[in-house]
Give the backbone structure.
Amino acid sequence: MHNQTEDGSCTSDSGHGKFKPDKKHAHGPQNPWDAEVDIYLNSVAKDGTADFDVQTCLPTKLVGVDLHPQIQFHNEGRRGFFIRFRLFDNTGNGNYQFASDPKDAVWSQFGPDCPLSAAHGVFDPDKTVLENATTLYTYNVNEVPHLGEFRYTLNVSLDGAPKYVHLDPGGNNMDSMSRRRD
């Protein structure tokens, strides 16, 4: 059982430690976090509109009327995030997969609007690779000046070629390595 105190920190009944969000430590790992985001494609309408769910171990937050949670990226003193997006096709209509060109598989930009064409403002296109047709690996630097709300579009199709179905969840880069005291 965890108890939250007035200063926002959490303590455990077992007394084994405290959790204080965004607390920076003088020493510790600096390598990027490894995170997985599971995308469940449930259906695709004739007009290309997708029904999908997003699940991850990272903290999420519902923002406004958006039905998809915004992933909250907290570096906690590390050099960003390597993110593995895993696509699970539950449509029963075939085998949807990511765009076969990694630069088209994910588009990203800062602000509240989803990119509708190639944009690479958040996820590094030079560090984006397809591990296989349904697993995309990319890097989010989460460093100044790349902080704040952003949107991204995952592009999928039945054959990896254009005429993509756009899956458009969002995120929020919350902090950076620059706060670390070494």
Q: What stands out?
A: Confidence is low (pLDDT under 50) at residues 7-12, 177-182.
